[in-house]
Design the sequence.
């Protein structure tokens, strides 16, 4: 029996990526949609073999209570709405997969974790790159010692946002600018490959005058994370430059480069060590389908997902500190115990 998902929000990600991906998943299927765009919902339902009764409005969300075939709800809405729907899902006893960023800030995200914990439902943050073989190979290269002692890392994720009306450029809906949307991949992946938490943060941002896109959020942001042992990582994110996504790790004996690092398909990893350069290849796998399957298996087995809500909280802790540093011009130290372990 496949685990049933209700998808909430039928925007670009749902239509172009999630619905096609779930059709190739082994353990999951979609059994309902929740949207204000009824026509779009009905058309999508028909396309996947569902009926009119499987499409709900946002106001009707609580009617999912009676749907025994809905095991989990997948929240794919603008960031400001994540918390409301995670809490509503928890209240009706449904497990929740929530898109990144988990919330609007660390406090918002912590409240979401608490709501799910007290309701006894699982919460997973949809960090697709942590379900990608190239990213695991990068992490393994760091942990196996193949690169020697790691000294420096850098990561870039930029893309152009050219619609001044986009919700991503409205602080009240997005919570921040490119940092919380695409820069979050740099923060999350740096933490993931190192398996460590930063101890301090330093950052600067640019918000140009006279560009209607950047009235509320930054255009570009540069940040530095200090990890234990003097290891330094740099990150760059922007909505002003053509799509680029990279991760580089520099060690005493070798280095690795992922370029591109964060696309849906076509991540490319190359490793350079004393033996020369190697570009490993991996069987193709769909990141979204992996996420659907992973969470489905966790639900069946009653086990914690690999990227739980706490993982989403931790990136917010770091991103809140990045914005604080950019605002104050000061290094922000993260308290001991504020790391991932504090939530485990
Ligand atoms: P989108 O703008 O394409 O879709 C947003 C959906 O929310 C639409 O169906 C819209 O009708 C609905 N909506 C409800 N209330 C709204 C409101 N007040 N304003 C605007 N839309 C409203 O967005 P998207 O690209 O699908 O992003 C949705 C979520 O998914 C975001 O949290 C985003 O960060 C995340 N996302 C993740 C990835 C990934 O690779 N994991 C990629 C893209 C988006």
Sequence:
């Amino acid at each position: 029996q496949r685990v049933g998902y209700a998808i909430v929000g039928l925007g670009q990600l749902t239509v172009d990526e999630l619905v096609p991906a779930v059709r190739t998943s082994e353990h999951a299927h979609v059994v309902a949609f929740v949207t204000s765009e009824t026509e779009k919902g009905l058309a999508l339902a028909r396309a996947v073999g569902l009926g009119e009764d499987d499409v709900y409005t946002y106001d009707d969300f609580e009617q999912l209570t009676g749907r025994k075939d809905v095991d989990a709800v997948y929240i794919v809405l603008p960031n400001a709405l994540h918390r409301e729907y995670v809490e509503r899902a928890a209240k009706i006893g449904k497990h929740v997969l929530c898109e990144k960023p988990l919330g609007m800030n660390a406090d918002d995200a912590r409240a979401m974790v608490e709501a799910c914990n007290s309701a006894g439902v699982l919460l997973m943050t949809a960090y697709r790159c942590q379900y990608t073989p190239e990213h695991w190979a990068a992490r393994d290269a760091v942990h196996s010692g193949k690169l020697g002692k790691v000294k420096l890392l850098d990561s870039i994720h930029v893309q152009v946002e050219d619609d001044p009306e986009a919700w991503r450029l409205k602080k009240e809906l997005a919570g921040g600018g490119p940092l919380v949307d695409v820069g979050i991949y740099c923060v999350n992946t740096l933490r993931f490959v190192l398996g460590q938490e930063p101890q301090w943060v330093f950052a600067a941002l640019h918000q140009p005058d006279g560009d209607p896109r950047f009235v509320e959020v930054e255009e570009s942001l540069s940040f530095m994370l200090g990890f234990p042992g003097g290891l330094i990582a740099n990150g760059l994110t922007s909505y002003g430059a053509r799509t680029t996504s990279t991760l580089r790790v520099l060690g005493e004996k070798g280095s690795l480069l992922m370029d591109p690092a964060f696309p849906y398909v076509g991540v490319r990893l190359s490793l350079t060590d004393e033996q020369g350069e190697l570009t490993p290849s991996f069987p193709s796998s769909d990141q979204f389908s992996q996420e659907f399957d992973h969470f489905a298996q966790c639900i069946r087995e009653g086990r914690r997902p690999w990227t739980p809500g706490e993982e989403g909280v931790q990136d917010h802790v770091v991103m809140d500190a990045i914005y604080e540093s950019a605002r104050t011009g000061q290094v922000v130290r993260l308290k001991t115990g504020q790391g991932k372990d504090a939530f485990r």
Summary: The first helix runs from residue 12 to 22.
